[in-house]
Amino acid sequence: MVAIAVTLTVAVLAMAIFVGALFLHRKPPPDYWLRLTATGKPLKWDRDAFPLIVLLDPGLPAIYQEAYRQASQRINWCVGATLFGEGILAPKGTTQALENLLDGNVYISLAAAAPNPEPDHGMTSSTIDRETGEIKKALIQLPPGRHAVALSMIMHDLFHVLGFRDDSSSLTIMHPKISRRPQKTLITTEDQRRLRKTFDTSFSKV
Questions:
Q1: Residue 37: CB partners within 8 Å, gap ≥ 6?
Q2: 121 burial via Cβ count (<10 Å: 0-12, 13-18, 19+)
Q3: Which letter does DSSP use for residue 160 in this model?
Q4: Alpha carbon distances (Å) from 144 to 56, 66, 72, 80
Q5: Rounded distance, CA 61 to CA 92, Å?
Q6: pTM score, whole prediction
Q7: What Cα–Cα distance (Å) separates residue 147 from each residue in 44, 64, 139, 152, 198?
């Protein structure tokens, strides 16, 4: 009986080690940095939607407007294609409701107040086709008064607009906490790799 018990124990341990090894060596799914629909479809824009038309709320501070231009230019340069347009100042009285935006449009405005507990975190909302995962339009709402971190904050939310999810790695702009993101390069080598893999060279060149 003792011998049988020892044999079973060894067999169970061997199986556990085998399963653990499979798990550790399992490759992540392609485009694992993208958000998914409930059916597992990655969120992406149709390539015909590019360059996206970006509307800047007339109440958006000038430093936020400039941060958008710098962030969008860096993303466009990394991909070698124009994903984001230059940014158009919306006329006064323009609505910022997501449901009122045209397809292919992105609207950037100030939030009514900074969200807690992450005052340096914007909020990105998108309309998507739940069957295909196609992103139709997006709204970015930024907390007021975060001028010192405007570039990092807006860069992060532009990645969300493109369908990227938050990432716990401090090697990417997509870490949810701004203090844990790269501060000097902003777009890291890993961010560039993901951008270039998601958006191939078939787009119109910059």
A1: 43, 128, 130, 131, 133
A2: buried
A3: H
A4: 14, 15, 20, 32
A5: 14
A6: 0.82
A7: 30, 7, 20, 10, 30
Residue holding tokens 């507990």? 117
**Full pLDDT tens readout for the chain, 206 residues:** 545 544 545 444 445 444 444 434 445 566 788 999 888 899 999 999 999 999 999 999 999 999 999 999 999 999 999 999 999 999 887 767 898 899 999 999 998 765 555 667 889 999 999 999 999 999 999 999 888 899 999 999 999 999 999 999 888 999 988 888 877 778 999 999 999 999 875 454 44
**Alpha-carbon distance values, 80 to 12, 55, 129, 182 (Å):** 52, 22, 27, 22
Separation in Å, CA 2 to CA 8, 172, 195: 10, 53, 58
Residues 6+ apart with CB under 8 A from 111: 122, 123, 141, 142, 143, 144
Residue 12 has φ and ψ, to the nearest 5°, of -65, -45
Task: Determine contact, residues 140/124, Cβ cutoff 8 Å.
Answer: yes
The structure tokens 């990432």 sit at: 167
Strand ranges in 5-157 using DSSP code E only, listed in sequence order? 44-45, 53-56, 88-89, 105-110, 123-128, 134-142
